[in-house]
């Protein structure tokens, strides 16, 4: 069974630009979560999508946004990139709702210069 | 504020030397405590979920336990391939948030 996939593996952007990251969940999973893992800060919860709707977001500014498509894949958009946005962005999927284990993808390494 | 604290931050063991990693939490309405393993540059790999005090789960050389205030990940006779960062995370009451993670324990097993 294929796991969570993310693209691209690496992304280099300039400050002020926009970045788009993509995630495909495990087949049958309807919930997608996005996390940021910056150096020294640990994993921080960004966004949760379930059945195409944004269900909750962490303590991040509105320039972090996303969406979930009818096939349950998801996209994370980061506008007006800042240097401190450089991090590993991880996507996780679960069976849905709030009571299931989350399985993570390999991540997208975003570097902002 | 809900918090998850892991200790030690780093641990170096000899192959075969058993030890325990600690995860203490201060959350209300815990709805699950999760252990993950993360190798450098990769996404976390799911290990265990614990839901109630007294619960224990095992997988190969790993055993996770849960009390009302903390969880332990016991590593028995570790091998070099067990070297990784071990992350603890909690899901709080209502289930409306993503997981809250600790900063992890970086474990090195020397041959």
What is the number of helical segments of chain A per DSSP (H or I, 4+ residues)? 0
Strand pairing plus helix content of chain B: what structural class?
mainly beta
Q: Please count the beta strands of chain A (DSSP E, at least 2 residues each).
A: 11
What coarse outline of chain A follows from CA principal-axis ratios? globular
Q: In whole angstroms, how far apart are the ends of chain B?
A: 41 Å
Secondary structure tally, helices of chain B: 0
Mean pLDDT of chain A: 94
Biggest sheet details of chain B: 6 strands, mixed
Per the CATH scheme, the topology name of chain B is Immunoglobulin-like
Q: Give the termini distance of chain A in whole angstroms.
A: 37 Å
- Beta fraction of chain B: over 45%
Spatial extent as radius of gyration of chain A? 13 Å
Number of strands of chain B: 11
Contiguous runs where pLDDT drops below 50 for at least 5 residues of chain A: none
Question: Can you identify the CATH class of chain A?
Answer: Mainly Beta
Most residues in contact: chain pair = A-B, 28 and 25 residues
Tell me the domain tally of chain A: 1
The CATH architecture of chain B can be named as Sandwich
In one word, what is the shape of chain B?
globular
* The CATH fourth-level homologous superfamily of chain A: Immunoglobulins
Describe this structure in words.
The complex is a heterodimer of chains A (113) and B (111). Chain A has no helices and eleven strands. Chain A is globular and about 40 Å long. Chain A is mostly beta strands and 113 residues long. By secondary structure, chain B is mainly beta. Chain B has one domain (3-110): Sandwich (Immunoglobulin-like), CATH 2.60.40.10. In chain B, β7 (62-66) and β8 (70-75) form a beta hairpin. Chain B is globular and about 40 Å long. Chains A and B meet through β5, β9 and β10 of A and β5 and β10 of B.
């Amino acid at each position: 069974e294929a796991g969570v996939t993310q693209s691209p593996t690496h992304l280099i952007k300039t400050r002020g630009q926009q970045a788009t990251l993509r995630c495909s969940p495990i087949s049958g999973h309807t919930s997608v979560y996005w996390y940021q893992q910056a150096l020294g800060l640990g994993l921080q919860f960004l966004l949760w999508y379930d059945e195409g709707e944004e269900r909750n977001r962490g303590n991040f500014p509105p320039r972090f946004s996303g969406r979930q498509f009818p096939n349950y894949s998801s996209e994370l958009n980061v506008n007006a990139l800042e240097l401190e946005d450089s991090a590993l962005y991880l996507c996780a999927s679960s069976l849905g709702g709030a009571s299931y284990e989350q399985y993570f993808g390999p991540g997208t390494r975003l570097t902002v210069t | 504020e809900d918090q998850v604290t892991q200790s030690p931050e780093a641990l170096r063991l000899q192959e075969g030397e058993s030890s325990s990693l600690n995860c203490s939490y201060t959350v209300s309405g815990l709805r699950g405590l999760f252990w993950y393993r993360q190798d450098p540059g990769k996404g976390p790999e799911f290990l265990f979920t614990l839901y109630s005090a007294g619960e224990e789960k095992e997988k190969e050389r790993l055993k996770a336990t849960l009390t009302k205030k903390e969880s332990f990940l016991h590593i028995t006779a570790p091998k070099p391939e067990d070297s990784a960062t071990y992350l603890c995370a909690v899901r709080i009451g209502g289930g409306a948030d993503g997981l809250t993670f600790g900063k992890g324990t970086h474990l090195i097993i020397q041959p």
